[in-house]
Amino acid sequence: MPELPEVETVVRLIRPRLTGRKMIGARFSVPRQLRPQTPDSVRRAVRCQVVSRVQRRGKYILIDLDKGTLLVHLRMTGRLYVRSSGKPHDAHERAFFDLDDGCTLVLNDSRTLGTIRYFSKKKLPAQIQRLGWEPLEETPGPDQVRDIFRRRTLAIKPLLLDQSLWAGIGNIYASEILWDATINPQKRASQLTREEIRRLIDSVPRILRHALECGGTTLRNFADPDGKSGSYQDEFRVYGRDGETCLRCGGVIVRIVQAQRSTYYCKKCQKMRQNICGKEKGEIV
Known about the structure:
This protein is an alpha+beta fold. The protein has 2 domains: 4-129, Alpha-Beta Barrel (N-terminal domain of MutM-like DNA repair proteins); 142-266, Orthogonal Bundle (Helicase, Ruva Protein, domain 3). It contains 7 helices and 10 strands. The strands form 3 sheets. It has a 4-stranded antiparallel beta sheet with strand order 1-6-7-5. The two termini are 37 Å apart.
């Protein structure tokens, strides 16, 4: 699933081609991608509205119009791009928003898991209200993070996937962030030391910004609106490298399963150290 760097890459590329354009029509070949709304209701809502802004919130793309907002979630295989007039169609194109310059905003989605919703300006989507800090824009303080972690018994890796904490972090970048911060992914959030929390706060934006500079990660389907693949997969330090040597300490990268998702980490430099009482060193009390 596209994570923050991939979604931000899409937004930055389609923004200049959409802003200021008027939507003159819309067509949908997979109505369930709009549920509980219908193709007719969305078509009527967006017709003759002008795009005022294109932005990202977490993993969502928000296309602000005169009177409302289109909320797009790409999920596993979704791609969003502006197709110029005369360009050939693709068999996996599912939704079409015709623009006044002859171009078309297209959702391409081979597995049809992506979603599109329309919201009036009076109603902020619940999905957006639940999102946490924006990693590229907000830097929470260590005490603020520590107060949240103290109430959580979940291991830090699956907790990073909770979008109410840092919005936009997914499975790939969670492993990369924890390696960068030298934190064991199995350690409970409530046991992180102040120093580990400080390292985590530093690592979150650093890894995501670097991935964004690379155009995101392409493992299977992701390509930006111009059809270009991301290259951050060439920068992986742990993800997908089980059995290989750690680039920092020479230890062995291992794969485990947490919350039904693959986690990768170095057994040596991300090791949990135990004190003589069997408790985690540096546990917050």
